[in-house]
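Researcher: Sequence recovery benchmark, item below. Answer with residues only.
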């Protein structure tokens, strides 16, 4: 088997206002960096309404549909904007993660990376925010549990911003373990260590300036053992690369090698507990060169482990 790369050109049609960090060029940078890799390339399907409704109420889905403009932009908050292509892109982003779960659990691929935008980990149950509209990874986790009959799914989020949306969507479900490392204080202001859900949430806030050694230490001491103890049947990754030292939106000091290292360690756990089954989805990362390099390092590990 091999690694599936799931994406769609519709994700390039989500156009944000000039100067916005979550820009079309982000996905172009990622796809360009992955161009030479031996990956199973799959077009993301459109998500079904039922996929989205696993995590979001009908009212939220209807509100996003109603907000979609036919021209120009519609701003849902100061950060989160819709263009005429956004609605289709959001359905492709969810559809990519759902398809990735189906492929990995169905034995069509060893693991998968969903290269999509808009990202999803800030989207709360009834609120689009932080560039996000639907909880792509949380929906993938619920799909694995409800459609495929798994009993335990883990999500690890190493984006520099706390995945408040993912936490909101899974914190009442003991079948899902959610672990997040993130800079604090920083947007969105959530993710304190005392936020533990029903015992299924581990937040590890890190100070500005955190570098490679401190990041690896907390991963090895806190996050990896927690995932190991949980023994997931599928491991999902919210792969944000904005903790990179070059990123303009935050102040952590990780290097490209750190993203390869953490991917290796997570794949080790997946090998131990779930036959190597890993589904990763793109979240943040706003320096284009660093984003491309870090995403390539991440997917290169997946590709090597999937052979």
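Model:
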């Amino acid at each position: 088997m091999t690694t599936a790369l799931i994406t769609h050109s519709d994700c390039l049609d989500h156009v944000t206002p000039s100067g916005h960090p979550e820009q079309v060029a982000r996905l172009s940078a990622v796809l360009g960096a992955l161009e030479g890799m031996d990956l199973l390339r799959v077009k993301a399907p459109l998500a079904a309404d039922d996929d989205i409704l696993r995590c979001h109420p009908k009212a939220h889905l209807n509100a996003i549909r109603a907000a979609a403009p036919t021209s120009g932009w519609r701003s849902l908050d100061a950060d989160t904007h819709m263009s005429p292509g956004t609605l289709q892109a959001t359905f492709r982003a969810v559809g990519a993660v759902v398809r990735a779960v189906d492929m990995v659990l169905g034995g069509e691929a060893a693991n998968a990376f969903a290269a999509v935008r808009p990202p999803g980990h800030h989207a709360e149950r009834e609120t689009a925010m932080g560039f996000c509209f639907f909880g792509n990874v949380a929906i993938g986790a619920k799909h694995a549990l409800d459609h495929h009959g798994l009993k335990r799914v883990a999500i690890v989020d190493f984006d520099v911003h706390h995945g408040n949306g993912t936490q909101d969507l899974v914190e009442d479900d003991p079948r899902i373990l959610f672990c997040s490392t993130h800079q604090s204080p920083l947007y969105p202001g959530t993710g304190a260590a005392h936020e533990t859900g029903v015992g299924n949430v581990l937040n590890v806030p890190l100070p500005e300036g955190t570098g490679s050694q401190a990041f690896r230490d907390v991963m090895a001491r806190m996050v990896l053992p927690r995932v190991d103890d949980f023994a997931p049947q599928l491991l999902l990754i919210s792969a944000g690369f904005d903790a990179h030292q070059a990123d303009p939106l935050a102040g952590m000091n990780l290097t490209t090698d750190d993203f390869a290292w953490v991917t290796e360690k997570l794949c080790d756990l997946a090998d131990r507990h779930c036959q190597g089954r890993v589904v990763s989805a793109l979240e943040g990362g706003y320096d284009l060169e660093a984003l491309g390099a870090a995403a390539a390092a991440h997917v290169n590990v997946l590709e090597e482990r999937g052979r």
